[in-house]
Specification:
It contains nine helices and 16 strands. With about 325 residues, the protein is α/β, with parallel strands linked by helices. The strands form three sheets. Strands 9-8-7-10-6-1-4-5-11 form a nine-stranded mixed sheet, with helices on both faces. Bound molecules: flavin-adenine dinucleotide. The site of flavin-adenine dinucleotide has 28 residues, from helix 6, helix 7, strand 15 and helix 9.
């Protein structure tokens, strides 16, 4: 049996977890899920669709929001009683952090960002290193494999079904909840489409020229019902907030359409958007690296191209 730790944000299942469940199913059809700090009903319906036969709901009054060390501690007893062949999670920062705590408590290795896993003695994994530019073949020498998936490399695939909910009470020590979310501040409640969920992302780089240049990017994103993204140069310059940064040290995305405007295509940016289904690049430099990854390329000044694109979208919508 394989155990998949699924993550959530105040009860809403992280879509990356459905990809992790799909990835686990490619290894063994006997998949169970575990969720921490939320009532099971809504999550059970979701994970069941993605092939989990059982959802273990870990309860403890202290576990009401993200608390990575407490998650690691809570998983120990469950893992010891279920004895799965492997414990997986999505290779998100949160998934990796929780599994790393479990591995540290159990004094076992952990393999992060796997693109392929073969269980055995030793377990064989392929890991994405250097922002996905290097694939490493590695052997993991331990009975229990603890590993995260490079989740965007796996398309979520529903199989139907429902998960039986089993409650589990975690024994925590006071020091386990020393790190936990106690409040959220900032602009998380903009009401718009979030970068991670957006089907369309219009992204701007240094070529946009400055904060005011993002007017056209925002207008096109809004017309298409998408989200605004950007490169690190843009966030480092203070033109846009870090929540919009795409890449190795930003958000990793895989939308239907990624429109890269004035972005050169540095590997740290590519690491965050190369799984997009369709990539369109607008750049004045015909030699820009981004064109190597683009399905469609427009060589030109984004400040001339985007207004024409906006007009075309408006007229296609009959506006
Ligand atoms: C550890 C580390 C982590 C990093 N993490 C990230 C990350 O998460 N995300 C990220 O994006 N970067 C990241 N970077 C930075 C990355 O290496 C690049 O510096 C950055 O992506 C470049 O941003 P850019 O493409 O906007 O700028 P540039 O590389 O300067 O490219 C600007 C592009 O705009 C084009 N251009 C200029 N004017 C126009 C115009 N009018 N119309 C059309 N095109 C125009 C130019 O031809 C050029 O190709 C990281 C770097 C390090 C070292």
């Amino acid at each position: 049996m394989l155990l998949v730790l699924v993550d959530h944000d105040r009860g809403t299942l992280d879509p990356l977890s459905t990809r992790a469940l799909t990835a686990a199913r490619t290894i063994d059809s006997d998949v169970q899920a575990v969720v921490i700090g939320v009532s099971g009903a809504s999550v059970a319906a979701e994970v069941g669709k993605f092939g989990a036969k059982v959802l273990h709901v870990v309860n403890n009054p202290e576990l009401t929001d993200y608390a990575p060390m407490a998650s690691g501690r809570a998983l120990i007893d469950l893992v010891d009683s279920l004895k799965p062949a492997a414990v997986f999670a999505a290779g998100s920062p949160r998934g990796n952090e929780q599994l790393a705590h479990l591995a540290a408590f159990k004094d076992l290795p952990m393999a992060a960002e796997c693109t392929s896993v073969t269980l055995g003695n030793p377990h064989k994994v392929v890991r994405a290193r250097w922002a996905g530019n290097l694939l490493e073949d590695a052997n993991v020498h331990s009975d229990l494999l603890i590993a995260s998936f490079m989740a965007l490399a796996f398309e979520p695939e529903e199989v139907g079904g429902s998960a039986e909910v089993k409650e589990f009470t975690a024994n925590l020590k006071p020091e386990d909840t020393i790190v936990k979310v106690i409040d959220r501040v900032g602009d998380s409640n903009t009401g718009g489409v979030t970068l991670a969920d957006a089907k369309i992302i219009v992204s701007g780089g240094r070529g946009v020229g400055g904060p005011e240049g993002f007017g056209v990017i925002e207008e096109l994103a809004s017309l298409l019902g998408g989200a605004v993204g950007c490169s690190r140069v843009v966030t480092a310059s203070g033109w846009r907030p870090h929540s919009e940064q795409v890449g190795q040290t930003g958000t990793k995305v895989a939308p239907e359409l990624y429109l890269a405007c004035g972005i050169s295509g540095a590997m740290q940016h590519i690491a965050g958007m190369k799984n997009s289904k369709n990539i369109v690049a607008i750049n004045t430099d015909p030699e820009a690296t981004i064109f190597r990854y683009a399905d469609y390329g427009i060589i030109g000044d984004l400040h001339q191209v985007l207004p024409k694109l906006i007009d075309a979208v408006k007229s296609a919508k009959g506006a």
